[in-house]
Amino acid sequence: MDLPLVDFADSPERQAATLGQACAEYGFFSIPQSVIPPETLPAASQAIAEFFALPTEEKMLVAFPSDGYPYGYAPLGYERLAASLGMASPADLKETFSVGPDTGGGSLGDDPDQAWVRSPSLWPDRPSGLRFALEEYFSAMAQVAEHLMAVMARALDLPTDFFVPLIDQPISSLRAINYPKHSSAAPKNALRAGAHTDYGTFTVLHTDQVPGLEIQDSAGNWQSVTPNPDVFVVNLGDSIARWTNDRWRSTLHRVTTASSEQRQSLAFFHMANWDAFLDCLPTCQDAEHPALYQPVQAGPWLKEKFQATGSVSSESKVVVSPPSESAAT
Questions:
Q1: Residue 54: Cβ within 10 Å count
Q2: Which residues contact 237 (CB under 8 A, 6 or more apart)?
Q3: pLDDT tens digits for 133-177?
Q4: Adjacency order of strands within the sheet including 253-255
Q5: Using 50, 70 and 90 to split pLDDT, how confident is the model at 58?
Q6: pLDDT of 16-54, one tens digit each?
């Protein structure tokens, strides 16, 4: 399926109308890659390709130092995304490298638990340009996110600056993902990324042209998203679903083994402020549509969701060897 395009060059009213319809119907839409500087994406893509090509022992130098640490390298078999929904599944067939917001060493609030989200990102020595490339990409995505939140406010009949005090110190993160080439040695029923919803406001995803992303439609059927080299894919997260009283969808999605080829992506997870409350928006509830969720504080709720997916126990971890040359042909 092709996703609706929210073009930043359109009028604010048209952007809001297109986005609002897509969010209600699919929970997914696309935006042009031209919304960020032209050199930013190629530099980040090249840097993560070089990082994932390093020997495993070198990548492990920046591995999560402890269970539940939010940033760093996670090897193949570490994560099981379906666990966030209480679903049993094999470990995901991917490796990741995650970085967090640059807080400049400053405080995001008085809650000592916020030390978790302020944990320093772990940067490898190689490739030498990785940190600069990903920090530039992170900064560009943050600007895109601010624009999207203003469009979302308009689509929800709110002032365009409504979300500003809720996202002015966001706890967003960036994750580079490598899905190695695989063969028939992959465990039965394994997925490159298990079925899950995202937790934040939305995710801005860049992926290469290898297929595999699927979203679940309102009838419960899985639909394959057609790769498009000119757009970013945006999907809503659980935070927006709570804010909008499920008027907008946080859609179940997964990455399948439809192709055995290596696949790489960059996912920018936009989050609200740590201390922002996710409670039903005034335009999304009335006498006929009471609030479906109790208000929760975004940061602690996110931390709980995040820590439910990581550190697959040693008994359930898998190691998938790269296919042999004969198997790859």
A1: 16
A2: 197, 198, 199, 200, 201, 202, 203, 250, 269, 270
A3: 999 999 999 999 999 999 999 999 999 999 999 999 999 999 999
A4: 193-196, 253-255, 213-216, 222-224
A5: very high
A6: 999 999 999 999 999 999 999 999 999 999 999 999 999
Question: Contact, 210 vs 261, CB < 8 A?
Answer: yes
Distance CA 298, CA 237 (A): 12
Burial letters 179-196, b for 16+ CB under 10 A, else e: bbebeeebeeebbbbbbb
Angle of helix 130-155 relative to helix 40-52, nearest 10 degrees, comes to 130
CATH architecture of 12-328: Sandwich (2.60)
Per-residue pLDDT, 186: 57
Angstrom CA distances, 259 to 124, 176, 210, stand at: 30, 19, 7
Q: Check residue 247 and report its DSSP letter.
A: S
**Residues 291, 285: contact at Cβ < 8 Å?**
yes
Count of CB atoms situated within 10 Å of the CB of 87: 12
* HSE toward the beta carbon, residue 218, CA cutoff 13 A: 11
| Global confidence as pTM | 0.88
Q: What are the respective helix, strand and coil percentages of the chain, to the nearest 5?
A: 30, 20, 50
301 in Cβ contact with 271 (< 8 Å): no
C-alpha to C-alpha distance for 66 and 86, rounded to whole angstroms:
23
For residue 315, which amino acid is it? E
Strand blocks (E) in 93-229? 95-99, 173-179, 193-196, 202-207, 213-216, 222-224
Q: Can you give the residue ranges of every domain in the chain?
A: 12-328
